[in-house]
Write a structure and sequence with these properties.
Elements (H helix, E strand, L loop, with lengths): L2 E3 L7 E2 L7 E2 L6 E3 L6 E3 L26 E3 L2 H6 L2
Parallel strand pairs: 1-6
Antiparallel strand pairs: 2-3, 4-5
Bound molecules: zinc ion (ZN).
The site of zinc ion has 9 residues, from loops.
């Protein structure tokens, strides 16, 4: 089961320098490692040495330790 990382509504703003592009940040979301069961926020997830996995456990080093899905800007708009 994957965890949805939602866009933080307070951080969505139009980027004047890039015309129509928007900048935003994601909300801190709790995730759990499938390997050691440790809980932490998605911001603490580490990138594997080969750069292939962006969901490595900061505690036990498990690669792809959890499944996360980032909300897209269009999904965010639909949910409003
Ligand atoms: Zn772990």
């Amino acid at each position: 089961m994957s965890v949805l990382i939602k866009i933080n509504p307070d951080t969505v703003k139009k980027d004047k320098d890039v015309g129509s592009a928007y900048s935003f940040e994601y909300e801190d979301t709790d995730v759990e490692c499938n390997g050691c069961g440790s809980k932490f926020t998605h911001n603490e997830l580490e990138i594997s040495h080969d750069g292939y996995s962006t969901t490595c456990c900061p505690d036990c080093g498990e690669i792809d330790c959890c499944e996360i899905q980032y909300q897209s800007l269009s999904e965010y708009r639909k949910s409003k």
